[in-house]
Amino acid sequence: EYEMQRRASAHACFDSVVGSVAAKRLAHIEWAETVGEPSALFALQALGADLLLLGQHDPGSAATERDVRAGVSADFAESVLLASGKPALLLPTIFKPAPIGRVVLVAWKATRESARALSAALPFLQSAERVILALWADPGDGEDAAGPDIELGLRRHGVNVSVHREVAPAREVEELLLSKAADVGADLLVMGCYGHGRAREWVLGGASRTVLQSMTVPVLMAH
């Protein structure tokens, strides 16, 4: 019964938004439902999407507790990210409707995940007023860990970017990253989502987990 009420409420909200959008002829939007295990089915449907929009898990919310009892797991967003491989824009629970992407902080590491997140975020970066590229190096990293010249690549795409270079142990990067986002006034954080595991037993890396749990600004992630 609770699940049916939530679905009806969501559908009503959807209809209201679609009516407003359709009136302006901005986009074609359609409603779709899945029946079964939520994260697995959502991840399957996500394979046909360009960008996912997901919410941060709020362990203190009564609605969240009811969602968990209804079968929506606490790690829904993480499961979908890792299973689908699609980029996602995650909104924090404290998010208030406001423009996203005026000041963007990009956390860069020479990895597949960072590269995929950067590519997905390019439309945001090209329209941003300011883009900060944060390059964190581990004290033990050699020169080979630097990877390609990402600053040059972004400038070739018309991105107004400035580079901040930091050196810190990998275990401290997640806290420094969130602090950096606050310091530069970022309204969007772009980063790779790191996970490992076999079959359906996916586990998030430390930095990805910390950011998803503690983020205060929208985060665009890709695995």
Characterization of this structure:
With 223 residues, the chain is α/β, with parallel strands linked by helices. The chain contains eight helices and nine strands. Strand 7 (195-198) and strand 8 (201-204) form a beta hairpin. Helix 7 (173-183) packs parallel to helix 8 (206-214). It is globular. The two termini are 35 Å apart.
Q: Give the averaged pLDDT, no decimals.
A: 79
What gap, in angstroms, lies between the N and C termini? 35 Å
- The residue fraction in helices comes out at 40-55%
How many DSSP E strands? 9
Query: How much beta, percentage-wise?
Result: 15-25%
Structural class: alpha/beta
Low-confidence stretches: 197-204
| Annotation field: number of helices | 8
Order of the strands making up the biggest sheet: 1-2-9-6-3-4-5
* Order of helix and strand elements from N to C terminus: HHEHHEEHEHEHEEEHE
Radius of gyration: 18 Å
Categorize the overall geometry.
Answer: globular
Largest sheet: 7 strands, mixed
